[in-house]
Write a structure and sequence with these properties.
Helix content: under 10%
Number of strands: 12
Structural class: mainly beta
Distance between the termini: 37 Å
CATH architecture of the largest domain: Sandwich
Number of helices: 1
Shape: globular
Length: about 220
Amino acid sequence: MAPNPRPIPRFIADTSQDGIPSGRFAARLREAFVEAIDAISDLPAGAAVPEDVDWFPERTWGGRVWIPCSARTESDEGTLELFGHVSYALPIGEGDATDFRATADFTDILAEDNPDWKIDLNDDVIGRWRGENGRAGAVTLVWGRPLVRGAVAATAQLYDETVDQEEINRDRFTLIALDALEAYGDDIFMEVKLWSRRAMELASDSLYAEPGGDEPADA
């Protein structure tokens, strides 16, 4: 087989093995998330992490396990969504999780205020891939919820190629794939797609597309 003129890494992350965290482990993750939220200097007064945090399925990449999350809170400025992720070093054998790290942010842009949305997405760059001849890309953690009925799987796509996929678990999904490819000729961004049980495409969204527009937006 001839060399691939556009080599793109596919399926770089382990699929979810444990699903959505619960119990004591979820409580430990929440502690790390609370610390990250408390470190936000411009967090509106009154906002706090609730006891119940919505955790998303875990994915493993780069020797770490990545677990996204989101939570609603009330503040002096109205309802906010707190979001981010907690990661920890991949345990060896039956060892315990160590080296917890968390990233957090907030937004007042909510899905219920945007009825045209079909996917509620969050993302964060967690690494970088470098290829030959200056080719590169941002390793990106993506998590979200379908806002359409019947979605059973989510995929990440580049050049119309599927580069990651996961089943939807309790209306939540997590992906890890390359985004914002460099030195491939054109700007290439990840598209997230939702699929029905009969493999029908239900929705598609780019991490860089503003709702209702075609111009790239800041990540």
